[in-house]
């Protein structure tokens, strides 16, 4: 009989302990997963990948060149346009030399015109001779003007052709620059999609990298919690490794969604009965232990 009473007492103690545990407050306000801003580097030119010195896990600095697409054809086109520009340059007329003979003839005709004008004034020569000299000056002046106009038009046309050649060369130099594959941000290589020697086309993904030093956790909160959260607010973030193993980080609220959404099936909020929640991002300075996709908790 005593043994039975003792068993009932044990059950009551266990029930009280479980109830006490059930009333214990949660150690977090929201949960979510760690994310990072990922950047995919694409090929900007067509051609064989002559070199591609990238391995998954590499830490790369912004602007570092990691690969080279074949530049032979682009370089040859630049050389060809350079030769074409030289041809246009050689065809440009020397204005002063081209009109030198006509200028000399005009100067001589003007001298004759002045001489006949003096002779006619003195009555030593007929007026017709002055008229002929004047006509000759006018003809030569028109010839000179026509030559200058024609040569100027030709020079302008060649200048425009040379300018167009310069634009084409600039375009090719830009294509040449794009053959050199450089990373746009500092980060860690997450995935590598091609290998050296492959033929790549414009828009083909080459690699994906992310800044793993500055990550964030995307969590979801209810509207009741939202009234206590603002941008720049400090928060405590826990990276959950499972089996009760956690690592604490200091975080800052970096983004709060302006729209509500239905609770994602994989997310638990402080109020599990809430249908609508708001996404928030808490920025964290990573020490290398927090990983993308890792489960975490947030305490505001």
Ordered list of secondary-structure elements with their pairings:
Blueprint: H1 2-22, E1 30-35, E2 38-42, E3 47-52, E4 59-60, E5 65-69, H2 72-91, H3 95-122, H4 127-178, E6 180-182, E7 187-192, E8 199-200, E9 205-210, E10 214-221, H5 223-226, E11 234-242, E12 245-256, E13 261-262, E14 276-285, E15 295-299
Antiparallel strand pairs: 1-10, 1-15, 2-9, 3-5, 3-8, 4-7, 5-6, 7-9, 10-14, 11-12, 11-15, 12-14, 13-14
Question: How would you summarize what this structure contains?
Answer:
The protein has helices spanning 2-22, 72-91, 95-122, 127-178, 223-226; strands at 30-35, 38-42, 47-52, 59-60, 65-69, 180-182, 187-192, 199-200, 205-210, 214-221, 234-242, 245-256, 261-262, 276-285, 295-299. It is of the alpha+beta class.
| DSSP helix fraction | 40-55%
Low-confidence parts: 1-24
Main sheet strand line-up: 1-10-14-12-11-15
The N- and C-terminal alpha carbons lie at a distance of 53 Å
Overall pLDDT score: 87
**Number of distinct helices:** 5
Name the descriptors.
six-stranded antiparallel barrel, 5 helices, 15 strands, 300 residues
Give a written overview of the molecule:
The chain has 300 residues and is an alpha+beta fold. Helices cover 42% and strands 29% of the residues. It has five helices and 15 strands. The strands form three sheets. The chain has a six-stranded antiparallel beta barrel with strand order 1-10-14-12-11-15. Strand 11 (234-242) and strand 12 form a beta hairpin. It is elongated.
């Amino acid at each position: 009989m005593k043994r039975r009473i003792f068993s009932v007492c044990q059950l009551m103690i266990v029930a009280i302990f479980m109830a006490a545990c059930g009333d214990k407050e949660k150690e977090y306000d929201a949960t979510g997963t760690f994310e990072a801003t990922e950047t995919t580097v694409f090929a900007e030119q067509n051609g064989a990948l002559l070199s591609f010195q990238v391995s998954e896990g590499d830490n790369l600095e912004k602007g570092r060149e990691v690969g080279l697409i074949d530049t032979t054809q682009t370089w040859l086109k630049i050389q060809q346009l350079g030769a074409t520009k030289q041809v246009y340059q050689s065809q440009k007329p020397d204005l002063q030399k081209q009109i030198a003979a006509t200028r000399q003839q005009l100067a001589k005709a003007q001298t004759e015109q002045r001489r006949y004008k003096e002779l006619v004034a003195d009555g030593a020569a007929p007026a017709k001779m002055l008229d002929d000299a004047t006509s000759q000056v006018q003809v030569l002046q028109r010839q000179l003007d026509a030559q200058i106009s024609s040569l100027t038009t030709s020079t302008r046309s060649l200048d425009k052709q040379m300018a167009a050649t310069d634009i084409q060369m600039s375009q090719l130099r830009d294509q040449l620059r794009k053959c050199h594959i450089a990373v746009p941000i500092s980060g860690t290589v997450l995935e590598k999609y091609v290998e050296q020697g492959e033929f790549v086309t414009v828009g083909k993904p080459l690699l994906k990298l992310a800044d793993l030093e500055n990550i964030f956790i995307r969590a979801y909160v209810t509207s009741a919690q939202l009234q206590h959260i603002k941008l720049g607010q400090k928060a405590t973030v826990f990276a959950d490794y499972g089996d009760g193993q956690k690592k604490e980080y200091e975080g800052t609220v970096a983004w709060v969604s302006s729209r509500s959404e239905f609770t994602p099936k994989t997310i638990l909020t402080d109020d599990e009965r809430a249908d609508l929640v708001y996404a928030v991002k808490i920025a964290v300075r990573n020490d290398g232990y927090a990983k993308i996709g890792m489960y975490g908790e947030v305490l505001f």
